[in-house]
Amino acid sequence: MQPFWRTKTLEDMSDAEWESLCDGCGRCCLHKLRNEDTNALYFTEVACRLLDAKTARCGNYPERRRFVPDCMRLTPELVREIDWLPPSCAYRMVAEGRDLAWWHPLVSGRAETVHEAGISVIGRTVPERDANALEDHVVAWPGRVPPTARPLPRRRNTR
């Protein structure tokens, strides 16, 4: 039997399936900048005030929009329209017809693999309160998939 993300569209997923696509990396919770003249997108290392830097998870997910009004609720339509989801994002990958990576908790069976693969923001962020100017914190890594997260080669059976 195929896993749900291979057989269902984003629109056909249950709420639980939709929520389980989030790998808990925290990259979407980093502030981004857009050049008004060129429309170029720039990621920063500055974390949303609700992002827990030790877990890469929202500190108040159910009420996040109450505290951060511009926090976006992802929908299938929005996922297909926005350009700021990182290339490693499962929502983006499924929307583009790609499979989930080996480190995704739905594939690996362990939440820790997203951190072990170097995908998560743990140890790489600056708190919002400590960042004077977002322009001073522009970084490239949130928009890239690290080499450690690339698909692993198949192992030969040595027995």
Description:
There is one protein chain. This protein is an alpha+beta fold and 159 residues long. It has one domain (4-146). Helix content is 21%, strand content 13%. It is built from seven helices and six strands, in the order ααββββαααααββ. The strands form two sheets. Strands 1, 2, 5 and 6 form a four-stranded mixed β-sheet that branches. A hairpin with a 4-residue loop joins β3 (51-52) and β4 (57-58). It is globular, with a radius of gyration of 16 Å. It starts with a helix and ends in a 20-residue tail after the last strand.
Topology summary:
Blueprint: H1 4-7, H2 15-20, E1 30-34, E2 41-47, E3 51-52, E4 57-58, H3 64-67, H4 76-81, H5 90-95, H6 105-108, H7 113-116, E5 126-127, E6 138-139
Parallel strand pairs: 2-5
Antiparallel strand pairs: 1-2, 2-6, 3-4
Give the tags:
single chain; 159 residues; alpha+beta; 4-stranded mixed β-sheet; two-stranded antiparallel sheet; disordered C terminus
SSE order, one letter for each helix or strand: HHEEEEHHHHHEE
Distance between the termini: 28 Å
- How many structural domains in the coordinates? 1
Q: Total helix count? A: 7
Summarize the structure.
The chain is α+β, with helices and mostly antiparallel strands and 159 residues long.
